[in-house]
Specification:
Strands 1-2-3 form a 3-stranded antiparallel β-sheet. A two-stranded parallel ribbon has the order 4-5. The chain is built from 6 helices and 5 strands. Helix 3 packs across helix 5 and helix 4 crosses helix 5. With 184 residues, the chain is α+β, with helices and mostly antiparallel strands. The N and C termini lie far apart (38 Å).
């Protein structure tokens, strides 16, 4: 099943499965300007059915997030079993980056004990099934530029600006918004 969340950036989608009374999200799909929502769902989850009540809890938190409010994602709303090993370490550390701040790929790699693992961190973030829950948009290149993002760089910058991250005139994140090593 899937449900659509209308945001100022476009339509986000939550895809999941029903297990008894529980809906378990298996993927959050970010707004894509170049691809209609239904097309993206059909491509990745053929046969998924639209249900306006599916994942009401996680959809509500996604709405709050896109409105600029603090969102609290309940682990019981998603299938965490699909996030394992190195990817779990990367995504868990990304979730510790506070709103209004970013960390570099290399800094995140070093913080989980893999110095020189920036590319591996980037690959794990690119695979992130739960963007926003694990805020991969808060990870940038060492030179202060945005790097990649599944929702596109315009969305990545928009999310960061919404969270209070500032950019210089060249489009690089301001140094005061970058955290390395310890998060707090």
């Amino acid at each position: 099943y899937y449900n659509v969340v209308h945001t100022k950036f476009g339509e986000a989608v939550v895809v999941g499965r029903q297990e008894g009374d529980c809906f378990l999200a298996v993927r959050i799909m970010l707004p894509q300007k170049e691809r209609p929502v239904a097309e993206g769902v059909e491509k990745e989850f053929p046969g998924a059915l639209y249900s306006p009540n599916a994942g009401a809890g996680i959809c509500s938190q996604i709405s709050k997030f896109f409105e600029g409010s603090e969102a609290v994602f309940d682990e019981a709303d998603r299938d965490e079993g699909i996030v394992q090993g190195f990817a779990r370490r990367v995504l868990t550390k990304a979730a510790e980056i506070p709103r209004g701040f970013v960390m570099t790929y290399s800094g995140l790699a070093a913080s989980i004990g893999v110095p020189g693992g920036a590319r591996a961190v980037g690959n794990a973030l690119a695979w992130n099934p739960f963007p926003l829950v694990y805020p991969c948009h808060r990870v940038i290149r060492a030179d202060g530029t945005l790097g990649g993002f599944g929702g596109g760089l315009k969305l990545k910058r928009g999310l960061l600006e919404m969270e209070g991250v500032f950019f210089d005139r060249r489009g690089k994140v301001m140094q005061e918004n970058i955290r390395e090593g310890g998060m707090k």
